[in-house]
Amino acid sequence: MTNLFNPDQLLYGGDYNPEQWPPEIWREDVRLMQEAGVNFVSLGIFSWAKLQAGPEAAFNFGWLDEVMALLHAGGVGINLATATASPPPWLFVQFPDARPVTWDGVRLEVGGRQLYCPSHQGFRTAVRALVRAMAQRYGDHPALRLWHVNNEYGCHISECYCDLCAEQFRGWLRGRYGDIDALNAAWGTAFWSQQYHRWAEIQPPRQAPTYANPAQQLDWRRFSSDNLLSLYELEVAVLRELTPHVPVTTNFLGFLKNVNYVQWASREDVVSLDAYPDPADPHSHVEAALQYDMVRSLGGGRRWLLMEQATSAVNWRTRNAPKRPGLMRLDSLQAVAHGASAVMYFQWRASRAGAEKYHSGMLPHVGEQSRTWQEVKALGAELRDLKGLARMGVPTKVALLFDWESWWALEIDSKPSADLRQMPVVLKYYAALRSLGQSVDLVWPGSDLNGYAAVIAPNAYLLTAQSAGNLRSFVQRGGHLVLGPFSGIVDEHEQIGLGGYPALLRDVLGAWVEEWLPLAPGETLGLRLEDGREARASTWAEKLHLSGGRALAQFTEDYLAGGAAISEHVFRKGRSYYLAADLAREDIAWLLRRALAAAGAAVSDLPLELDVGVSSGEDGWVLSLLNFHRTATLHLRLPEGGRELSGEGSLASALALAPLAARFVRYDRPIVPSDVRVVASDPAHD
Predict the structure, then answer these.
(1) What is the mean pLDDT of the chain?
(2) Which residues are catalytic?
């Protein structure tokens, strides 16, 4: 298989859509790509209509042949799309029922993108034919380095409720349960007289008079993710058959709720991501870092591809703020610091027409005199100096537990509170870990936890016996577990474990929950931490009973007053902590500091505006320092013995990091992010 990652090169480029422009522009594009240092582009993502004019029409590859030849001559490698992401209008004249159906029965119309029913066999046949023709035509092209399968699966259509998908759902259920009695037991259909006697009686959880069966909803989510995955695998099977030497990927969309990326990543040769942090949010880089750590973890720690981001404004928010001077560079370097080997954008040349014409590009509408173009060229040159990072990994000792199925189950309707949502909770715990100077891996139920000192589970609402056993074994061996509220409530069938929550981990926690106290918006509940500091719970609180554990915090108000709010328990060689409340990030950090110190992890105090990371490899250790503060200079104390990554000169341990600045410092000995200290934030710039 082609080695996509040159160990001495970071990939740089973006989506290239030459079908939007006349041929004379193509040659100018290649010249400007060379000027900017572009060495890699994604090509043909939305080109199906140009490649094929109708069901009986011959494929039109002439224009694509010319573009690929120009790129190859210019030294630009190609991530060639299978072009299936946006089917052409003629396909739905041929197959009107290939248009997807929404939850409330509306069949969507032609005019956008990603319009297809994943179950439609006519659509699948057309996809297979196109992919086969692409692979036969370009499989041995010297510029081809990677196959880009479809694009952003699930972005617009993650579920289709048509009759074809209903039949596929029934087949999926037969494969999962074997017989109808097993399904009835798993779904708890004795409730509300929902018992099924024949498979044909089962439908998708379409719009109904009131709540649909929760287990049915959960299985529908599983099926819908699997159904999209089968569409991806259809394309990959053709590519593996005809071009086994070319790696494949499909670009993920951060924490896209309806697609279980854990299942998808194992079917890719390299994991890739599209990320669009909001320039108007001064802390959006924290969520971006969480996404970057997620895709690195999905790939088993290997380096990954930032397939899309924006050079400046996007087109799809209510208000589309531009990136300030320097922020595009900082966003890109943050991805590299978190394990990316490619920095790419949507798109190369900003469009003149269409729904994304106001989306920024590497080459804006105003052309080469623009600020964005000058920043694009400067970053291309800088990435050549940082090429050594392409050989490095990101070492971690702390893991954050994340589970798509638990996310689905938590946010199914008819819960004690609709305000307890997965991603805000996860982001809060992740931000607390970063503020303590921790590099973080994400792990999934069943992941190998050996090598981690601590596992943090912000919420594990759905917990299978196998997953609970994995956590128990981790603590037994000496690991430290921090478990957030409303965890371990249901099994994989959305059925509650009885006898006190979380039923499967009561012995590990030395505590159990009797009942929940959801809090109204704006309502809080007081608690006192062990060191005497006061804190406030919001959104959620629980009545926690100790059964061997001890209280690290107690509630001070309402009928929970005097009861434990945070527990600690020594279990075999390890230790567990349980939070019976939704707390502010600073209070979560208080507990995490204690847990990490007990686990032997060094901690520090870092502002959220400072992203600190460490990469390591045969060439040593590299400390990355990125200041996302818009106005303040951060004065840092660094470990002794560092030198600039792009030079050989030694660097003083005292460093002033300007607003929106980044530095990469090389060491010959092991370091960790918590080795960095913030001495001061320059008040003159606040």
Answers:
(1) 96
(2) 152, 308
